[in-house]
Design a protein that fits this description.
Strands 1, 2, 3, 4, 5, 6, 7, 8 and 9 form a nine-stranded mixed beta sheet that branches. The model has no long low-confidence stretch (mean pLDDT 96). The chain is built from six helices and nine strands, in the order βαββαβαβααβαβββ. It has one domain: 3-Layer(aba) Sandwich (Aminopeptidase), CATH 3.40.630.30. It is an alpha+beta fold.
């Protein structure tokens, strides 16, 4: 049986250049969120103690990014933002610049290598992220969760989907289910968690679709339809995520 080791990037800085070696399941268009494009390298360089890497021997099989930030700062007041993922990244580096003392950790990403999914690695990475935050003195982890089953239902309401449950009371969505089993509580939908804009030519390159008809376009891997405006020459994708709170026992 393989031996999986999970460490922080601070503990194994030599893995920084290999974080993206593994093939993941993110759709190509997701690489073009401008906030993430700008700040992912800074997470690696400035917050390596919050970056988790799972290895199986010499192979990187999963990665996890998290960030510390001031959720309870004046004007934020503990409220999870409608702009979710993007907003937390912006708050994090604003707080870092001001040398503000963070009070909360937010998950940003947990990805498992294609071919290693179904082995429970996502749950192990989430547990390691919680443990890492607890060890650093935090009492809560929040997560703008990207529901793994939502791309199969792009026209479904994100609010209805987030609250949908199975007969056993657990969330219908597999990734939300992992979070709830780990002790998380679904709080709200972040309707503007990630915004990706592009020219029609860019969207054609990212998706292989024609993008020549006005209105919603169903794109593989997208949680909701992409809005296409051929007359103006652009398309825009606004992704909702689901906020989950994880209280951390001492």
């Amino acid at each position: 049986m393989s031996e999986i080791t999970i460490t922080t990037l601070a503990e194994r800085p030599e893995l920084a250049g290999r974080l993206w070696d593994m093939k993941d399941s993110w759709p190509a268009f997701a690489d073009h969120d401008p906030v993430a494009y700008l700040l992912y390298p800074r997470m690696v360089a400035e917050l390596p103690e919050y970056v988790l890497v799972a290895t199986d021997g010499d192979e990187v099989v999963a990665r996890g990014f998290s960030v510390p930030f001031c959720l309870h700062a004046p004007g934020r007041d503990g409220k999870l933002p409608a702009r979710g993922w993007d907003q937390v990244l912006l708050w994090t580096f604003s707080d870092l610049r001001r040398r503000a003392v963070p009070d909360t950790v937010s998950a940003i990403e947990i990805s498992v290598a294609v071919g290693r999914q179904g082995e429970g690695l996502s749950g192990r990475m989430l547990a390691a992220m919680r443990d890492n935050a607890r060890a650093r003195g935090f009492t809560e982890v929040v997560a703008p969760v990207r529901p793994s089953g939502k791309p199969a239902e792009p026209d479904a309401s994100a609010h209805e989907y987030a609250r949908r449950t199975r007969e056993d009371g657990l969330p219908y969505d597999p990734w939300l289910r992992v979070h709830v089993r780990a002790g998380g509580t679904i709080e709200s939908v972040a309707p503007l968690s990630m915004t990706i804009t592009g020219s029609l030519a860019e969207w054609r390159e990212w998706t292989g679709l024609p993008f020549d008809t006005p209105g919603p376009v169903h794109v593989p891997g997208a949680l909701v339809p992409v809005h296409c405006d051929p007359e103006q020459g652009y398309a825009v994708y606004v992704e909702p995520n689901v906020w989950v709170r994880h209280p951390l026992a001492p």
